[in-house]
Amino acid sequence: MAVNTQTSHHENVDDQRPQNYRSLSSKFSIFTGVLVAWIVVVILCWDLRQHTFDLAKGIVLCCVVALVAGAISRFSMRLLARPLELLQQGITSVREGRFEPIQVSRTGDEIEYLGESFNRMIETLAHSQEEIRQHQELLEDRIRQRTQELEKAMHTALEASQAKSEFLANMSHELRTPMNGLLGMLDLVLDSGLSLDQREQLETAQRCAYSLLGLLNDILDLSKIEAGKMLLEKIPFNARTVLGDCVQSQLAKAAQKGIDLRFEASEAGMYEILGDPLRLRQILANLLSNAIKFTDRGYVRVHLSSSFRSDGRVTLQFSVRDTGSGIPADKLPEIFEKFTQADGSISRKYGGTGLGLAITRRLVEMQGGEVRVESEPGKGSTFTVVIACEPAPASASKQPSVKGTTAAPAAAPNSGSRLLLVEDNLVNQKVVLAILRKKGYQIEVANDGREALQKLDTAGPYDLILMDVQMPVLDGLEATRAIRRESKWSRIPIIAMTAHAMNGDRERCLQAGMDAYISKPVQPAHLVATIEKHLGSRTEKAPAPPPAANSIDRVLTDRLMREESGLLNDMLQLFLQLAPERLDKIEAAAGKADPGTVAEEAKMIGAAAEQLASKELGECARRIEAAATRGDFEQVRQDVETLRREIRSLEALTT
Ligand code: ADP
Q1: What average pLDDT does the chain have?
Q2: Could you give the C-alpha distances from 624 to 136, 575, 588, in angstroms and in order?
Q3: pTM of structure
Q4: Which of 97, 292, 534, 577 could potentially form a cystine with 493 if both were Cys, beta carbons 3.0 to 4.6 Å apart?
């Protein structure tokens, strides 16, 4: 193989020789031959002229000519051509990257000197080549090492970032719950009799708590998105109602700044779509709060339109136009990055964290849409959101909008069906019970999976099961598997309810044998729609239970239907916990004939009760207040008893 390569090298060298190439030795021999032949011809011509020509002498001379030419050729070959050829081969080897010394002819002249110099040059070249190679190896080693270190660092950073996002996403519940408690307590205190100073201070605390909650929600949302744990709902809703409600909720803020805020929707649009109303509302709320924040005078307009696409889907487009400060052109590409603000000084004046638009863009992109901005400093900005969504199925489009209405909700088509709610959290039980009882379902509660199995055995059959996933004793997945193993229960629809809207949860629930999945906090319309879908059309219905018996029920369930956040439920829970304590205090104060304490405590209970439960409860508390002022402590004791009864019935209703 090596030999062949060598040969081909030589062939290459030969190929590179010029076409009229003739070796030095042949040139010398031709030259000497011609010279000697010319001398011979001259001698022979002279002999002919002198008539002394001798053939033998001529032949001898010709032989001499041939011999001399041969000798000179050989001599020049040995002395000149061979060393030069070796030198040329050496150069070729160097050109091909081989630093081998050439064989030097020991002629003791310039040729030998040239050969030696060439070999020294080769030696130096080989040496530097070796040094370069060693440097290269060293560099490659270092690069490899650095790359490994970088990869390791990147891996660690990624893991840390993932862990951070996961931590924040998982903390959402833990952080929001005390915040809700804090806000609820502030609300309760603000509803009681306070001096002007105290009110102002508490209202400041309330504003701070709300902005803290907003910031918390933003950070948690972003980390949830970055950890890939933000899941979007796909439920039917009316986009026009949801976005209109959102604009409505910001009217007061705009009016406070003297800004004219309007919502316009193209009449011809199709707004009954399938998607995530909560997130759509969040997108508009972010854009709208910025528009109001950065506008000092003029107007803010929200325009909504929609059109059908050729693939049967609907393009929903809405824009928020303001006459505010505007954004410099060079800042436009940056404002959608997290923690970025166009103008630090302006943003300091208005506050903010630079997270709103980052979340907005990610939410829009998660729905396969895009958000654009056009702006002129000093004149205003227009943010436009375009999302392609599926139209809601015809039957679903008649369902109430997610925000619900204050009108009395109608009973569900399958009202009277027997449902089993498996849920360990008391507040969640109350919320779901209030929603579903209002719809006319008969519903029983099991506190964990094992209790659910017992109830199925002893109190069944049930038409549908609502199953929490994380529970003590026996969790929702295990309980579902156990239910599915029993052939008599294998066809009962089971709907999972989980607070962890994380990727993979849905699949785990379905794999365990559940039929559907909804995430908490439950949205009343979605919960009812999912239950109805799985109950199907049933011909034989048990009679619906009588409508809500008393005013407490009506007020409470109406509120639960209207409110989507857990705040109200947590506040109600707090009220139920605190009220008996306050009633004890009232009784003790009445025993000591202390009208001041009785009146103060009764006032607090009255304000909270009116806000959370019913007017009647509030009025009862006010009667206690009035009786205390009159000094009629017997009446106080009687009304305290009535209040206790009312509160107990409220507790019974929500359990
Ligand atoms: P934040 O408003 O909390 O600072 P955002 O991500 O919502 O964060 O907005 C980023 C930046 O974009 C803002 O700080 C502001 O400089 C600019 N911006 C956003 N909306 C508007 C608007 N409607 N008018 C003027 N500037 C805006």
Answers
A1: 78
A2: 93, 18, 14
A3: 0.45
A4: 534
